[in-house]
User: Fold this.
Amino acid sequence: MSFRWKLFISYLVLCMVMAVGLFTAVNSILETHLLDESRENLLHQAQLAKQLVEQQHTLKPQQLAHKLGSGIKARVTLIAADGRVVGDSDVRDDQVLGLENHRNRPEVQQALKSGSGWSMRHSDTLRTTMLYVAVTLPTNDMSILRLALPLEYFDTAKQTLHKLLGGAVALLLIISLLLSVIFSNITSKPLREIADAAARIGIGERGVRVPTGKGEEIDYLARVLNEMAARIEDQMHKLTSEQQRLAAILRGMGEGVMVTDTQGAIILVNPAFRKQFGLPGEVEGRPLVEVCRHPDLLHAFEEQRESGDEVTCEITIPATNLVLMAHWVPLSGEHGKRGTVAVFHDISDMKRIETMRRDFVANVSHELRTPVAVIKGYAETLLDGALDDTPERGRHFVSIIAGHAERLTNLINDILTLSKLEARDAALALHPLDLCGTIRKAQMLMEDHARTKGIRLNATCPESVPKVLADQGQLEQVLLNLLDNAIKYTPDGGDIAIRTRQENKRVVIEVSDTGIGIPSKDLKRIFERFYRVDEGRSREQGGTGLGLAIVKHIVQLHGGEITVTSEAGKGSTFTVTLPAA
Ligand code: ADP
Assistant:
């Protein structure tokens, strides 16, 4: 029930109680007053009748009673001292003697004691309330004069009084009803306003304030509410900025973050998590098991929930080859139940590097093993007596040792070059470089080698080709490696061509040969370290399997790129693109 109704009903009950009280009080006052008035009148009439009786000595009591009865609007009864009725205005003469003795009537008793008396009682004969008044007379045969007045008019007057009073009270009630409505409305209005404002504050509406100036108590309430609203707004503001900060942090985090509630439903994920697990749609509010079916993820999640402890595990996502280090921690929630916070750190690169490092160590050991074994073997053979054999044999063995030592040197040099490039401390001395000059120099250095195999080395470099921003030494290394490969993998009498041209803001260098070519299945991998199409042939040619890896590194450090096209048996073309100076 609303406050307004309660107020209205209180007012109404109050008015009704007052109306009933008023009705009862006024009614009883008026009734008493009416009765007193009637009694006084009747007493006066009795006194008058008494005087008349005293003056009439000739008339018999019955005649006197009739005479008085015709003058007074009341029944007149004359009673002897012993209580006998000697005259009655309402009774025929012959009936008087048969009337009951009146000595014990209360009014008669009172009159006998004090000279006058009265009483009011219901008359069964007349079926109405009667008012009796009695006075004493000085004679013995008529010692009491009694007047009896039916109070019919009194009842009628009472009824009229009741009607009038009832009407007045009803009118009063209607007026108070209307006033109750108005007052309860007026009184409850500020409270309704406060309640409205409180409801709006409650749903987070900003800038809502309760108007003041509505009375002391209401003002106090309004002030308290306004202070509360200001505090809530302040808190909300802090909370919002906190949330925004948190959201920005989560958005900016490279690590995936997921938070679940006590029921296991997701309540928060960041973009990194969505990306890691490939979840494009809405996931908040859904159980984790419904969102992602990754067995390792679900297993770790269950483990954490069951144990309630921190859990760390590695999760691999096969579709994207991602390796994640997941750290699960409990999040305290309501009633001792716990949610979960999980952070997924992408360790794919670390894993890749680790694998590469392992492969690299394995490859290096493998590469070193053969020359070291050969050197050791031949050295032991020499020591075991081959030195004392023919000098030609000894020289032959030593030249084999020297060849493998050379291979070891090349390998170690290449490994060092590569590790310097990878360590990023290969500080490039970048200068605008005349590309044609560098190509000519490389051509010159490799020409002898090519000539021994009867290979023609042809370089074209138009003067219009712009300079490139490069490190002279490193660029020479790129060209030498590519030319060296071209010579190594081109059979005697082949052709090698170096061509340069400008493409937009870049300069393109092509090194093509008419050699053995590279099978298409190997094309993708030839820039990997130690990858060779034909290991035997590479070794035979003094290759380390690191040349192209070094080339690719250098080109990338210059902000360029290298591609290869090849057809097995027909030749290969390596294309290096570098930014123009
Ligand atoms: P390597 O020292 O073995 O030459 P590289 O890294 O320079 O190592 O080259 C990797 C592999 O790529 C070589 O073993 C060879 O199989 C292939 N390759 C490189 N250049 C050529 C080329 N011009 N023609 C054919 N195959 C080539």
Remarks:
- The longest strand covers residues 322-332.
- Residues 304 and 311 are 6 Å apart (CA to CA).
